[in-house]
Amino acid sequence: MATSMISKNREQAFMSNLTPDWLKTELTTGTTIAAVEFDGGVVIGADSRTTSGAYIANRVTDKLTKITDKIYCCRSGSAADTQAVADVVKYQLNFYQMEMGEEPLVQTAAHTFKELCYDHRDNISAGIIVAGWDKKEGGQVFAVPLGGMVIRQPFAIGGSGSTYLYGYVDSQFKKNMTKEECLPFVANALSLAMNRDGSSGGIIRLAAITKDGVERVNLTGNQLPKFYEDH
Amino acid sequence: MAMKGKDCVAIAADRRFGVQAQTVSMDFDKIFEMGPHLYIGLPGLATDVQTVSQRLNFRLKMYELRENRKIKPKTFMSMVSNLLYERRFGPYFVEPVIAGLDPKTFQPFIASMDLIGCPMITDDFVVSGTCSEQMYGMCESLWEPNLEPEDLFETISQALMNAFDRDAVSGWGAVVYIIEKDKVTKRLLKTRMD
């Protein structure tokens, strides 16, 4: 912006705001998140960028948050809002687990998210994908987007980067994929979005959730799927 | 950004062209050759980048025809400043960075300008763009005086890349020009494409 060299008083009067933008803008997990079901579990993935306006506040964020041992959520939207909601849901499900004596269903987790997101829809900005495994229905993916609806889907994408992926996922998704097919499906999708969306980037964090537990993988640097030519 | 070295200058820029968060192309060049040893970098609004470079080129050609010699970098800076100040109350949204060697003495020269043409000549480095704060931090810590061309290349590349890796709307490729007395080397950097 234009440089100025005017006298102190006038300068103070109309340049009263010298704090940089990145101290004043809310942190958002701009983001690309995705989750897909397979027979026996789910694969979830996210990028790792948190932005404050255009400044990248954290380039190695973990947006895959544990809710219970077998249920995770992918967070997009306001960093504060999604962390707060996830903490509340984690607490409530932990309590539920102690009362009921068994692991909560993914459906229960998704609906708990929905309660919070819908009831506070005017005050928070949170787009969440809930995914996990339970013994009743196996692997499940539920999307809980901005207004607070819940919908179970075979695969879900979310975040600002997801707009670049609808065509790709619709053409590449096949029913009854195995875990080994789901992992590159999610990784490629995330990589394509990170390549085009300014608010997504960094590394790809993947997790595979099955009855045997959670397996986490990070794809960094040259391991990221490449869809461009070096020129 | 541009940096001064020992009898050489370097100028570098990213290659992104985007509309807010969306990246439209990754081969948008913002550094223009204005003479055999004179380069200008134009970050900012893409349409103004193109218009300013075309208008500037015209003025430069007219100067060379009238004066029958190559322009000095300092004079060129004043020419750019004049062009931008003509639009004082409806400016071009570009903040140019100039790097070059004097056509006769080959003295290194770097300068930058704000969008209405206020010139600033420095002896070390100049930066411009959306991640200027990050670039200032990188340059302050990495630059030292009298770097040889090879070292200057490393320094400017690292400064630029690490700065725009912390900016959500910059990056997607980079180009670096090292301008010496007898040659100009243009290199494309392999960067993160996110």
From TrEMBL, chain A:
Cytoplasm listed as a keyword: yes
Active-site feature positions: 31 (nucleophile)
Subunit structure as annotated in this protein's UniProt entry: Component of the proteasome complex.
InterPro entries: Ntn_hydrolases_N, Pept_T1A_subB, Proteasome_bsu_CS, Proteasome_sua/b, Proteasome_suB-type
Substrates-to-products reaction catalysed: Cleavage of peptide bonds with very broad specificity
Any one cellular-component term (Gene Ontology): proteasome core complex, beta-subunit complex
Protein name, as recorded: Proteasome subunit beta
GO molecular function, one term: threonine-type endopeptidase activity
Organism of derivation: Patella caerulea (Rayed Mediterranean limpet)
Automatic annotation (TrEMBL), chain B:
GO cellular component labels: cytoplasm; nucleus; proteasome core complex, beta-subunit complex
InterPro entries: Ntn_hydrolases_N, Proteasome_beta_3, Proteasome_bsu_CS, Proteasome_sua/b, Proteasome_suB-type
Subcellular location: Cytoplasm; Nucleus
Annotated coiled-coil segments of the chain: none
Alphabetical list of SUPFAM superfamilies matching this protein: N-terminal nucleophile aminohydrolases (Ntn hydrolases) (SSF56235)
Pfam families tied to this protein: Proteasome
Keywords associated with the record: Cytoplasm, Nucleus, Proteasome
UniProt entry tagged with the keyword Translocase: no
GO biological process: proteasome-mediated ubiquitin-dependent protein catabolic process
Chief localisation class: cytoplasm
Reported function: Component of the proteasome, a multicatalytic proteinase complex which is characterized by its ability to cleave peptides with Arg, Phe, Tyr, Leu, and Glu adjacent to the leaving group at neutral or slightly basic pH. The proteasome has an ATP-dependent proteolytic activity.
Assembly mode: Component of the proteasome complex.
Family named by the database record: Belongs to the peptidase T1B family.
Name this protein carries in UniProt: Proteasome subunit beta
